[in-house]
Amino acid sequence: MKRHTFPLAITATLAALVLTACGEDEPSGSADDPASSPTQSESEPTTSAPVSTPTESPTTSDTATAETVEAPIFFAADTANGQGLFAEVRTIEADNPLEEAAAIMVAGDANDPDYRTLFPAGSFESIEYDGEKFVVTVPDDGWSTRAPGMSKADAELAVQQLVYTLQAVEGAEVPVVVAPTGLLFGVDASTIGAADELDVRGLVNVLSPGEGETVSGSFTASGEASSFEATVPWEVRDETGATVLDGFATAEGWLDGLYPWETEVDVSGLEPGTYTFVAMTDDPSGGTEGHGPTEDTKTIVVE
């Protein structure tokens, strides 16, 4: 089973404001030479008062520093083969990224409108990582059994939504332990690891651009995919759904998991407006076999 570990990017944002005022006292003056004549000698001095600028040179440096983490958070979405998990890269505070990422995941607070959570309303009491495992504590037994309307498949994928999110945020493929009951939606989560990504993830995932991102000229699109012969077709569609650009990227692999892909997309010839970037898995059968291609879409704004 191949797993690709998302890198954890901690970005320190530094904002500094420096105000500097400076001046100098510089006396200035002029004196006329005395004028002389054969009959009269007269000296009439001209006095010029010095122009003085008060000197004030305090330097104030106010520096505010905030650390943030770019964390992949997993949500569910529909695919050609049922539900799958998709990662969305989000910027969160670095002081407690596991709990913040889990809160966004549970709330279903995805930027992409196609993404959703499999969790009912609620929250975790705490999430801790000790270097060997994640210990997730729930406040009561409300999540020990399946919520009304939740299927067994939904429950199992919800548990994997949690496992994949915690492992991606921390960058550690270690098991998750749910306390105190060891159950999550009726699934044994006393010690549970990540399932094979080919079984639980959407087979193509756009990580960049983000939903609603503004682009111009050309931009880099990237993500992960498991697509036939590592070919990842892509399209740019206008607001009518018509394809106005297309191409393909080549992933780093495809047989045993999702692999990174990246491509340059030149939108310099498009009119400004709202478009949809679509990445998909390759379907050599043309739709005559299997479930058809999986797609992941992102709205972009072309300037």
From TrEMBL:
Residues 292-303 have a biased composition (Basic and acidic residues). Residues 1-23 form the signal peptide. The keyword NAD does not apply. Residues 28-64 have a biased composition (Low complexity). Residues 24-64, 283-303 are annotated as: Disordered. Keywords: Signal. Residues 204-287 form the Bacterial spore germination immunoglobulin-like domain. This is Uncharacterized protein. It comes from Nocardioides antri.
